[in-house]
Write the structure tokens for this entry.
Amino acid sequence: MRAVTYTEGARIDAPDALLDTTFPDPVPVGRDLLVRVQAVSVNPIDTKVRQGAYKQGCEPKVLGWDAAGTVVSVGPEAHLFKPGDAVFYAGALDRPGSNAAFQCVDERLVGAKPANLDFAAAAALPLTALTAWEMLFDRLDVATPVPGAAPAILIVGGAGGVGSIAIQLARQLTDLIVIATASRPETAQWCRDLGAHHVIDHAKPLATEVAVLGLPGAPGFVFATTQTGAHLPQIIELLAPQGRLGPIDDPETLDVMPLKPKSLSLHWELMFTRSLFQTSDMERQHAILTEIARLIDAGRLRTTLSETFGPINAANLARAHALIESGKARGKVVLAGFSD
């Protein structure tokens, strides 16, 4: 099969950072599905693994944790899908990724592709939708109010891939006032189009920006998708006592002691935890993706695809990595099909 491999620690402009290559087709075992990959999207985790922040620990070394495709065959214990099914998924951090013509993925991490989306639009969704859903409902537990707080959530980095779907989920599935941050006119409008009630500028002091909105109290929740360390003092100031903070990024250090006076709680989210540790509720990701597909097909959510970079190959993936690393990406960048 065709695939794109990476050199760990390489700068994206290095000639061997990403390479087109070939491997034997993988063979499904256990509850695996063998999927013919038809579209992928690129996330910050791809760049972090390439740079060496996370050790993939598998061979071949293939990035990619967002895909949509068609089931070719199934392992002996698989029962949720059959050959010919169209699926979408993020997969597991400790197995070869989706930048390959074929990929084995545990069916418990897979959902049926939304019928109303093509493969490219569907590939934009799994990792970010799972991350946003798990943070909102499994970690921050936004359905349980913070006593005395305004029913509001601040989503830092609203125009990014995770922020883009988190805005939609919070608006569609909760009664929270949704506040997003964005620093450019086009990204601010993107957040409004996705359903944010308010958009504030994260280049300015967040507590001041929130204060002028006239909310009925301090927000009870903050979902920090980026720059948590830099924004932490402002987040602590703007959160209501007993409020909940959920970060997903990787600050080099994070001093949590200032959270104590307000009894603020910290809720980490890593979408790969369930698969890395083979948790007993691993199949919840199948259930979440099933619900995401239902909401898409009902017209309540939309894809966050913003740009298509052509077929899946090393050169186009390098362009996508460079855009992600620039911090200027809006929504999701997708690649579809393999070039001959």
In short: The longest strand covers residues 32-42. Residues 41 and 162 are 13 Å apart (CA to CA).
